[in-house]
Task: inverse folding
């Protein structure tokens, strides 16, 4: 494959605005994410807007409630463990502390502030990514995040998954697209970078619906997007649907085609931080092709090349 790309935000063969490209140009060298679980809960698991979580979430996970804090030394230990996992990939020593698990604005906002600022004090940490739900953004949380965004590289990641309320209800999301729009707007109005997660292959969704999700999201001009397939893991409600043959999963070829069309609809400046998912291999039931991440990514590159296309081509 040629290393030449017609896409402006690329210095290799990629025809989309990759996260690695963004970080290299933001910091002048490579940076790696260190994933952190600080025990943040979720209102969709503890009864505040639902119980049991989304149908693709493990049902055996403890339904943690509102976050009350984590000791700085415990956070340091967890960060050190996460840093070791990416050490072979990262020789620059620069890291993004990624508060990935749970809804990291659901609880004591002062306790979250302390955790985020503690992470920023760790050697090599040059930024934060904070995952949360769009319905967990009270004004106090947005104020805190806006202050942090003035100090450091901050991205707040919101789970959307789909713009279709019927699908969201079927999946037990616990919020509507209107609620997402409200939360997204709160963050953007304060100048906060926002990343959005979407899932292809949700129950009863057609490729046309998946493209509508991408087009609707693109119109909001998010700073970052993560795309992955629906995968079925043991211990989830979706696994039971799969066993009852109530769920049709996408083939690799179908997935690649939809993703390429979604990329074409995204604004060029939007960072595409993920194009495939990483299911727990010990629990993954399907689709088994999702285990071969390199194959999926290479197939996306090849199809964009064969189309003569790139990110933003059909805006």
Result:
């Amino acid at each position: 494959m040629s290393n030449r790309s017609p896409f402006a935000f690329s210095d290799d063969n990629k025809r989309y605005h990759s996260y690695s490209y963004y970080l290299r140009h933001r910091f002048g060298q490579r940076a790696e994410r260190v994933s952190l679980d600080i025990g943040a809960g979720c209102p969709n698991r503890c009864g505040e807007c639902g119980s049991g979580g989304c149908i693709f979430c493990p049902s055996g996970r403890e339904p943690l409630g509102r976050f009350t804090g984590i000791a700085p030394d415990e956070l340091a230990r967890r960060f050190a463990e996460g840093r070791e996992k990416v050490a072979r990939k990262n020789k620059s020593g620069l890291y993004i502390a990624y508060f990935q698990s749970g809804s990291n604005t659901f609880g004591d906002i002062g306790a979250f502030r302390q955790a985020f600022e503690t992470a920023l004090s760790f050697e090599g940490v040059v930024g934060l990514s904070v995952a949360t739900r769009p319905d967990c953004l009270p004004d106090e949380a947005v104020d805190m995040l806006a202050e942090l965004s003035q100090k450091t590289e901050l991205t707040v990641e919101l789970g959307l998954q789909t713009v279709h309320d019927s699908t969201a209800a079927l999946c037990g999301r616990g919020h509507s697209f209107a609620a997402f729009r409200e939360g997204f707007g709160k963050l953007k109005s304060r100048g906060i970078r926002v990343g959005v997660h979407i899932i292809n292959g949700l129950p009863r969704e057609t490729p046309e619906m998946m493209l509508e999700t991408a087009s609707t999201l693109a119109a909001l001009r998010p700073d970052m997007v993560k795309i992955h397939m629906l995968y079925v893991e043991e211990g989830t409600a979706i696994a039971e649907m799969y066993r009852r043959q109530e769920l049709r999963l996408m083939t690799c070829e179908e997935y690649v085609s939809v993703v390429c069309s979604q990329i074409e609809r995204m604004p060029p400046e939007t960072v595409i931080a993920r194009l495939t998912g990483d299911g727990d291999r010990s629990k993954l039931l399907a689709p088994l092709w999702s285990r071969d991440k390199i194959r999926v990514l290479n197939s996306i590159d090849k199809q964009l090349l064969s189309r003569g296309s790139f990110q933003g081509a059909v805006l």
Observations:
- The first strand starts at residue 32 and ends at 36.
- Residues 260 and 307 are 9 Å apart (CA to CA).
- The longest helix spans residues 72-86.
- The chain has a mean pLDDT of 94.
